[in-house]
Each structure stands twice: as structure tokens, then as C-alpha cells.
Write a sequence for this structure.
């Protein structure tokens, strides 16, 4: 029986592992953190239906209860090499290369090492880490989850400003791509903020609002209709602190062609998705690293879960920004591709 | 008379801390569909008045909702002069978000008149 390793116990890795295991194939699932699930654990609600993220997490976690799955938490994979690069001769019976994962050998490896949120410190002009009122979307999600949205002095904010495309679509960050889900996340968080703080003014500054998925455009409408969220087309160019711990922002109201300024209790930076450290390093080692450090699939249309390296498969946000549901589906597709190769 | 070659410039920046939020609020109460506006400019593109004059209806309602009403009355700037609108309603027909733009214009006029008196 072929030995299968899955690297990364996020949504894509878990889905692939559970599918393979339920069809009787033993898999070893590596996870660098102490717990599986990856980035879902940080979320409060999921767009577009406001499903409770933690309930989804529990269901995902339960998929790992299968005797065919060996889950190795706290195990960071630092070495991923096929025999033809590592220089050892072992090949399995079918003539495909053997893969070395740390010090163990496998026939098939699925890379599902995911993404990491953009580090907002890199956009110094937006004041993250400098002014107490500036937060990332992850911190906002945490405040929403804990039902405790507060300004820098611990009171309820009277005004919240969201800024899109932080670390995405930005030459200065070196990321030309769109992170795909920050637009809808901002709308989701704006709605959540209004639910918890009905009297708070909420603004979203955007370059383009990309409401591409099913139900997203409707969420945008709901944000306008039921929650009175204000959308302004313009990019905030800089943020400064005020003496009382608020944030002053500057933007252009591009639809009026006029500069605009305002103070806000909170400025929430919608940080984009970058390839995780594991993705970058492992994809480089086995020579499938594509643009921006993401892993490159063999072909984006027909062989999106395969890579150019025989026996190495790729799934989820290690390839490009992906939503949770896309990652789950992609894990399933990868499992199917693996099954057909067995 | 200004005998020197300079004058005091006023800031061009829209300051939302000072804007009169009540005006927008009243406008939204009277024309709830205005909440859906996405600033696409469909209304301006089709406007009969805009075809022959500087009038820009989208710019006008944006300025109003940002509280910049001194540009609209009592001496309106040429591109945001609501008196140029003929209330033909073409803009309402094309709006992708179903904004009652014609009603919006009537309400803006009314609110501006009330503000003066
Ligand atoms: S999804 Fe929206 S906020 Fe995120 S990078 Fe794309 S356009 Fe910007
Ligand atoms: S056509 Fe409708 S949505 Fe577009 S700018 Fe005019 S009022 Fe707004
Ligand atoms: S109703 Fe007024 S703003 Fe609308 S298209 Fe006619 S003239 Fe232009």
C-alpha cells in the first residue's frame, strides 16, 4: 500500500485526509501547530450566511476521528524532497519517486500548507502598531467573536472605518494580486459591528468592491439597506493619531474628486493573504514555487491539484487566496486525484 | 476691494467630522432607496440636462450626502445646480440599484429651501 502524507491540517488538508481515510487509505497528517484546523479557529462568523465558524470548526475537527488518520501536531515539516532532487536512489515499484518528509519516506505527498495573513506593520503609513486605534481584520474578528468591540480607551466606538486592500493589489507590498475575500469580510464585519453597536457609524473605504461569490452582492446591499454602512470609493493614504487615542485618516473621495479627512475611533485594516512560511519554503525545496511564494499547480484548469513534481499534489490556499469553502472543495478534489493515481 | 494679489484659500478637503450628518439622514428618511446608491454614474450618463449643460447629478447627490451643501445653494456651482434638472426621470429608469433619483432631487431641493429659511 502506498504511503500518503498530507502537510497542513487546515480545511483542505483535513478534507483530503478524511476522504482518503474513509475509503480505507491510511494517511499521515502533519500540522506545525498544537491543534488542527488552521485559520478557521480565529473566525466568528462565516460569509455569506453568517454560519457560526466555531460550529463549522467542530464538524471539521470530527472528520479527523478516523483510525486511518495519524495526526501529528506540533510537527513542522522542514524538509520535503523527492528522490530525484535529494539524490537517493530509492524508487517504488511503479517507478515514481519517493518523497522524503523530514526523515520519513512516502509515495505520495499533498501540500496543504495554506496562507498567512499579511503583516500590517509593513504598511507603516497606516499606523498599525503605532496608534492604538489601528487594528487588523483579524483583531476585529476577535473583538466581534468576544462581543467586545472597544476603542483604545475601552469604550464603545462611535465610528469605525474599514480599509480594503491592505497588502493586496499593492506594488509597495510586492503583491499585485487580489486576496479575493477581504472585500466580503469587510462587509461581513461592518454588518456585525452594526449589529453589536447600532449607533456606531461605519465606513468602508474601497478601491473596488469585489463581491464575486454567491450571496456576496446581496450582503453588500443588506449592509447598505439594513445597517446603513457607508461605502466610500477611495484609498486611505495615511493615518495619524489624535491626542485622545483616535485615528485621523486621509483619503480622496474619488467620486467627488475631493480630498477627505475624518477621525475615527477604530481603523480596521483588511489584510490580505500571503503564502505561509511553510508553503514558501517547501514549494521552493521541491521546485514548484510560483509567483509570490505560492505553490504552483500543474495547470490551473485541468490539473489544478497536481504539480509538476510526480507524486506531489497541491490543495487549498497554498496555491492562491481561497475561501474556506473553496479550500474544502479543493482538498476533496486533491483526494480524488490521489485516489485515481493509486 | 482686494488691493493685493492674493487671498485666503479655504481648505478643499471634505471634513466628515464637521459635516452636517442630519441632512443626509433626512434625505435617507425621505428617500430610503438612496442607501443603495453605489456611485456608478448611470444617472449622470443618461441625464438629459447633463447632455447640454455642466450639470452632474451623481456629483450633486454625493456632495449633498457629504454635507457639502454650500456648493449647492444659495448660489450653486454650475455642475451641481439642481435647478437645471427638468425632473424628466430618465435617471430613475437607468439606476441599477433602483434609487428613486427623481424623488431624491425633489427632496434635496426641499431640504435646501428649508435650510435657507
Ligand atoms: S478582495 Fe477586495 S479588499 Fe481584498 S484585495 Fe481584492 S479588492 Fe482588495
Ligand atoms: S445610477 Fe443609481 S446607483 Fe448609480 S450613481 Fe446614480 S443613483 Fe447611484
Ligand atoms: S430627472 Fe433631472 S437628473 Fe434625472 S435625468 Fe432628468 S434632468 Fe437629469
Amino acid at each position: 500500500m502506498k504511503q500518503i502524507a498530507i502537510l497542513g491540517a487546515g480545511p483542505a488538508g483535513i478534507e483530503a485526509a478524511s476522504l482518503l481515510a474513509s475509503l480505507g487509505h491510511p494517511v499521515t497528517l502533519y500540522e506545525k501547530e498544537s491543534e488542527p484546523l488552521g485559520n478557521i479557529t480565529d473566525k466568528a462568523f462565516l460569509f455569506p450566511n453568517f454560519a457560526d465558524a466555531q460550529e463549522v470548526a467542530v464538524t471539521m475537527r470530527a472528520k479527523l476521528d478516523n483510525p486511518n488518520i495519524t495526526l501529528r501536531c506540533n510537527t513542522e515539516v522542514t524538509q520535503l524532497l523527492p528522490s530525484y532532487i535529494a539524490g537517493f536512489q530509492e524508487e517504488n515499484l511503479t517507478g515514481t519517486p519517493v518523497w522524503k518528509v523530514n526523515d520519513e519516506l512516502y509515495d505520495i505527498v499533498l501540500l496543504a500548507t495554506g496562507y498567512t495573513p499579511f503583516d500590517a506593520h509593513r504598511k507603516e503609513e497606516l499606523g498599525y502598531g503605532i496608534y492604538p486605534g489601528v487594528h487588523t481584520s483579524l483583531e476585529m474578528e476577535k473583538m466581534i467573536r468576544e462581543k467586545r468591540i472597544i476603542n483604545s480607551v475601552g469604550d464603545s466606538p462611535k465610528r469605525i472605518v474599514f480599509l480594503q486592500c491592505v497588502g493586496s493589489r499593492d506594488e509597495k507590498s510586492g503583491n499585485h494580486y487580489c486576496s479575493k475575500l477581504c472585500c466580503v469580510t469587510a462587509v461581513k464585519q461592518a454588518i456585525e459591528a452594526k449589529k453589536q453597536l447600532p449607533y456606531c457609524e461605519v465606513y468602508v473605504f474601497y478601491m473596488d468592491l469585489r463581491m464575486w461569490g454567491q450571496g456576496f452582492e446581496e450582503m453588500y446591499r443588506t449592509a447598505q439597506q439594513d445597517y446603513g454602512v457607508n461605502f466610500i470609493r477611495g484609498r486611505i493614504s495615511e493615518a495619524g493619531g489624535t491626542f485622545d487615542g483616535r485615528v485621523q485618516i486621509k483619503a480622496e473621495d474619488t467620486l467627488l474628486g475631493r480630498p477627505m479627512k475624518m477621525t475615527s475611533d477604530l481603523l480596521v485594516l483588511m489584510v490580505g493573504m500571503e503564502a505561509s512560511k511553510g508553503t514558501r519554503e517547501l514549494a521552493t525545496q521541491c521546485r514548484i514555487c510560483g509567483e509570490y511564494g505560492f505553490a504552483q499547480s500543474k495547470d490551473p484548469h485541468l490539473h489544478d491539484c497536481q504539480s509538476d513534481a510526480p507524486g506531489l499534489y497541491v490543495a487549498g490556499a497554498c496555491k492562491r487566496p481561497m475561501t474556506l469553502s473553496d479550500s474544502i472543495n479543493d482538498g476533496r478534489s486533491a483526494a480524488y486525484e490521489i485516489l485515481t493515481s493509486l | 476691494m482686494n488691493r493685493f494679489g492674493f487671498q485666503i484659500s479655504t481648505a478643499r478637503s471634505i471634513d466628515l467630522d464637521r459635516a452636517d450628518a442630519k441632512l443626509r439622514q433626512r434625505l435617507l428618511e425621505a428617500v430610503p432607496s438612496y442607501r443603495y446608491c453605489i456611485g456608478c454614474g448611470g444617472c449622470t450618463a443618461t441625464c438629459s440636462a447633463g447632455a447640454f449643460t455642466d450639470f452632474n447629478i451623481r456629483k450633486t447627490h454625493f456632495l449633498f450626502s457629504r454635507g457639502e451643501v454650500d456648493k449647492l445653494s444659495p448660489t450653486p456651482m454650475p455642475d451641481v445646480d439642481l435647478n437645471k434638472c427638468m425632473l424628466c426621470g430618465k435617471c430613475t429608469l437607468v439606476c441599477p440599484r433602483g434609487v428613486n433619483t427623481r424623488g431624491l432631487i425633489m427632496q434635496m431641493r426641499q431640504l435646501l429651501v428649508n435650510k435657507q429659511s
Notes: The longest helix of chain A spans residues 324-341. The CA atoms of residues 162 and 316 of chain A lie 27 Å apart. Chain A has two domains: 4-114+276-341, 118-272. The mean pLDDT of chain A is 94.
